[in-house]
Amino acid sequence: MARMVLGIDVGINGALACYDGTAVHILDVPTTGEDSKRRVNAAAVWPWLDQHKPVHAFIEYVNAMPAVADESGTRRSMGTASAFRFGDTAGSLRTVVVCCGIPFRLVMASKWKHHYGLIKTDKEASRQKAIDLLPAHANLFARKLDQNRAESCLIAMYGWHELRKGT
Q1: Could you give the 3-state DSSP secondary structure of residue 13?
Q2: If you average pLDDT over every residue of the chain, what do you get?
Q3: Residue 141 CB-density burial (10 A; 0-12 exposed, 13-18 middle, 19+ buried)
Q4: In angstroms, rounded to a whole number, what is the distance separating the alpha carbons of residues 56 and 3?
Q5: Residue from 42, 144, 21 nearest 98 by CA
Q6: Smallest Cα–Cα separation from 54: which of 97, 10, 108?
Q7: Residue 167 to residues 38, 152, 160, 161: CA-CA distances in angstroms?
Q8: Contact 77, 70 (CB under 8 A)
Q9: What is the pTM of this model?
Q10: Cα–Cα distances in Å, from 46 out to 31, 85, 96, 110, 154?
């Protein structure tokens, strides 16, 4: 049996992906509640992890977005409620991984994106890269909103390669 590696694109609209070198399994982050009350349904993540039995997880390292100006001078930031919910989501997903006994590494987006030549690209580029690398699984990334699925898969694939290298 091939060794599954888990990749997590953190966020309330994020996704989890298991990859073993050929097979891909995707779970959109399950949630409960609606609108601003929407939260991770951690109890729904465990059975999926138990089914696929990843040996290691790579979780995207995230933090709240500060109010800084971009190249055009536009200030983009995360409000306090959004930052709290984002942190709650990240913590919930990490906690499920820990409770399942899966060792994990946090990986900066710049690290895994560099691996795929995706630095300074948008999420659509990640979706296209996943389709290019996994044409047999392109149906998993068919919709524009499947970009989070694609990023979780690319993180899992990055982790799979890192573990094979022994790093």
Answers
A1: coil
A2: 92
A3: buried
A4: 9
A5: 42
A6: 97
A7: 37, 20, 10, 9
A8: no
A9: 0.91
A10: 13, 20, 7, 28, 21
CA contacts within 13 A on the Cβ side of 90: 16
Read off the pLDDT band of 24 (50, 70, 90).
very high
d(CA 119, CA 121): 6
Dist CA 116 CA 64 (whole Å): 24
DSSP-assigned states of every residue in 24-54: EEEEEPPEES-GGG-EE-HHHHHHHHHHH--
Q: How far apart are CA 34 and CA 41, in angstroms?
A: 12
Tell me phi and psi for residue 80, to 5 degrees: -65, -40
Which two tokens mark 139? 């149906």
Domains and CATH numbers, the chain: 5-165 (3.30.420.10)
CB atoms under 10 Å from CB of 48, counted, come to 16
